Amino acid sequence: MTKDYLDGGSFAYTRSVQDIEQENRLLRETISQLKQELDRFRAPALLVADVVEIIDDVHSLIVMPNGNKFYVDKASTVLDLKVGDAVLLEQKNLTIVDKIKSTKRFNVDQFVIMEKPTIKWSQVGGLAKEINEIREIVELPLKKPELFVKVGIEPPKGILLYGPPGTGKTLLAKAVAASTNSTFIQIVGSELVQKFIGEGAKLVKEIFDLAREKAPSIIFIDELDSLAANRIELGTSGEREVQRTFMQFLAEIDGFKPLSNVKIIGCTNRKDILDPAILRPGRLDRLIEIGPPELDGVEQILKIHTKAMTLKKGFKFKIVAKELEGMTGAEIKAVCTEAGYVAIREDRFVVDTDDFIKGKERVLAAEESEGDDYLHMFS
Q1: What CA–CA distance (Å, rounded) separates 99 from 50?
Q2: Which residue of 2, 8, 27, 99 has the smallest Cβ count within 10 Å?
Q3: What are the mean pLDDT values of the chain's consecutive 10-residue runs (379 residues total)?
Q4: CB atoms within 10 A of CB 102
Q5: Sheet containing 96-100: which strands, arranged edge to edge?
Q6: Closest C-alpha to 206, from 197, 194, 219, 216
Q7: The domain 108-289: what is its CATH number?
Q8: How far apart are CA 218 and CA 315, in angstroms?
Q9: What is the domain partition of the chain in residue ranges?
Q10: Which homologous superfamily is 47-100 in?
Q11: pTM (2 decimals)?
Q12: 3-state secondary structure the chain
């Protein structure tokens, strides 16, 4: 009985020791993991850069986000390095220690206006000649590329719309996008340059990649003159960044295949200051001037913007159109809105000719006031 008791006690003692040893082993492993994690937290962050040139098996040329370039070594564990790869650099001596799978730094959708326009050609008035040109240059290659293959010619890659503000340049671009069922990607040149110092060229590349992905698509660049103005001496870092962005833009245009289903439409109020490089054959070499409409065009625009309005019986479109001659499409639309307000203020729902005359006076007065404010800034 005593022997059985001792044997049972020995067995219990042995199990207890084994449990304690297993618990100690788990605790040591946990402490080791925590130390490794703490070491990772204490390690300095790695820098991100892009490879622009492979010098040899060990050395490469990289460019930092701020535009600075460095001649650096790479670790032996980094294999198959290629130009354009995004890499991680050790901070002290900028040695390449690893690659990043994706080089995309922007969610491009946040920085462009992307839509499927629904504007029809019938909603564009006073620009019959310009519409025919755009349909021939942009719409036809997108809808019937086989015609150009059969004839053996290459359609233009893009066009430039130029003229004073409010004449319908953006409207034309949206209408051709709608007629071809294309994705409309709108970029404002000044914002591209101002907001993304150090990253403009990268963003341009990704915008064009997005256009290819969403093809058929139309890239519409508003205020092109802010990006593609005549090149000057590169004095400041801002000017150098504009040039890098512009050169990337030209490179993307040159990289398009002739029958590609991505088209570029540039828009500017200042054609006279554009760099000749953007207008040479093979780039935005088709120029279409969009000016104020002639008298017949004014009447067409007036009918478009008054389509939903309740006009007085016997309303004389020609008389009102004669009064609005010389105004742009945007100004005519503003006059129609003001004419409606005149009727509302007088508790009427029917709009007559006099309301449009008063509306014109209010629009011109507002423009004159804005012009005076602008002049005061420089006085």
Answers
A1: 10
A2: 2
A3: 51 70 85 79 80 87 81 88 84 87 58 80 90 92 89 89 91 92 86 63 82 88 85 59 81 75 90 88 89 92 93 91 92 94 93 93 83 41
A4: 6
A5: 69-73, 59-63, 47-54, 86-89, 96-100
A6: 219
A7: 3.40.50.300
A8: 40
A9: 1-43, 47-100, 108-289, 295-376
A10: Nucleic acid-binding proteins (2.40.50.140)
A11: 0.69
A12: CHHHHHHHHHHHHHHHHHHHHHHHHHHHHHHHHHHHHHHHHHCCCCEEEEEEEECCCCEEEEECCCCCEEEEEECCCCCCCCCCCEEEECCCCCCEEEEECCCCCCCHHHCCEEECCCCCHHHCCCCHHHHHHHHHHHHHHHHCHHHHHHHCCCCCCEEEEECCCCCCHHHHHHHHHHHCCCEEEEEEHHHHHHHCCCCHHHHHHHHHHHHHHCCCEEEEEECHHHCCECCCCCCCHHHHHHHHHHHHHHHHHHHCCCCCCEEEEEEECCHHHECHHHHCCCCCCEEEECCCCCHHHHHHHHHHHCCCCCECCCCCHHHHHHHCCCCCHHHHHHHHHHHHHHHHHCCCCCECHHHHHHHHHHHHHHHHHHHHHHHHCCC
Residue type, 275: D
295-376 carries CATH number 1.10.8.60: yes
Structure tokens at 229: 């103005």
